[in-house]
Structures are given as C-alpha cells and as structure tokens.
Amino acid sequence: MGWICIYSPQKSVTPDTLRFGYLQLNINISVIIDFSLPKLDDKISQIMAFDFGTKNIGVAIGQRVTGTSSPLPTIRAHDGAPNWQTLEQLIQEWQPDAFLVGIPLNMDGTMGEMGIRARKFANRLHGRFGKPWYPADERLSTRSAKEKADEIGHRRNYQERPVDSLAALVLLEEWLAQLAAQESS
Fold first, then answer.
1. Cβ-count burial of 127 within 10 angstroms (0-12 exposed, 13-18 middle, 19+ buried)?
2. What is the reported pTM?
3. Any idea what the Cα angle at residue 14 is, between residues 13 and 15, rounded to 5°?
4. 114: buried, middle or exposed (CB in 10 Å: 19+, 13-18, 0-12)?
5. What is the pLDDT of residues 101-160, one digit of tens each?
6. For 164, left (φ over 0), alpha (ψ -120 to 50), or beta?
7. Rounded-to-integer distance, Cα 20 and Cα 31, Å
8. Best exposed site among 35, 62, 159, 167 by fewest CB in 10 Å?
C-alpha cells in the first residue's frame, strides 16, 4: 500500500476523483491525525479551545492547573474564515499558551471536508500567533453542548443563540480531564 500526499493551494481536493491531464485517478485519501494526549511543557497553562464551523466558531478558555474552563463569545465566520481582528483581540485579552481545535470526524473515524478545513484553521492560528495547537476529536461535542444548553434552560433556538462556544467548552473540559488523569498516573 502506498501513500500519496496531495496539496492544492488553489482549491479543495476531494477524495473521490483527481484529474491530471487525460489521466483520471480514483483514490481514497486518508488523513491521519494523532489524537493521543501530548506531554505538555509546564509553561503551557492556559489553553484556548475552538469548535470550528463555517458560520460560527465557538471559543472557550481553560486553565490546566485548576482544570477550570469557561465559554467565551462565539466568533462569526464567513465560509469558515473568522473575523481575525476579533479573534486577535480575544487572544490578546486571554493570553493562551496553546490552542485546542476540535477536528470533526465521521462516525467511522474518517475525515471529511470539515475536518480538513478545521486543520487548516488550526494551522493558520499557529502561523498567525506562533502558539502550538493540539487536535481534539469533536464527534458528538455539539450534541453534548445542546444537552448542556437544555439543562440550563436554552430554548432550542440554535440559529439565534448558537451553542458553538458550549461545544468548545465541552471539548476543553474533556481534554483537560484526560490530561489531568494522564499526568497523575
């Protein structure tokens, strides 16, 4: 079995079909992401988490030492591109040491277009702000966020009152709990 790496800065490459001149290749592209918990440097204490979306990007902030986290205002996005000025203001205000980015996977573990776009967003965060980023498997995080929202009286009007920052909070809480368990063992 061989591996092929395809990079196209001009447009997205779909796993279905790639065309090179007269040659058409039908291949499946597998993107491998390591979701294992990292061994973090002691200097990394404040982590900002993101639940990537094409219309909204949920944001949460958490402390590694205390294990506490809080949702922050959702950032509006246009086709997945955030308002970088608003994002920069949040980063300057909260001064995170690292980023946690939810990577959406299909239930079978494969990565679709949204997963690829979330990784691209994470790489841009790193490029703009020079901080490391870590991936988090975000399958079912929105469902958990909606359940959490229902518990606190949300009226299920998710268009008017999105739960994206609650989804980022769920990702961050789970990741911090797993990290604390790993570090204590």
1. exposed
2. 0.71
3. 120
4. middle
5. 999 877 777 778 888 999 999 999 999 999 999 998 876 656 665 566 556 655 555 455
6. alpha
7. 21
8. 159
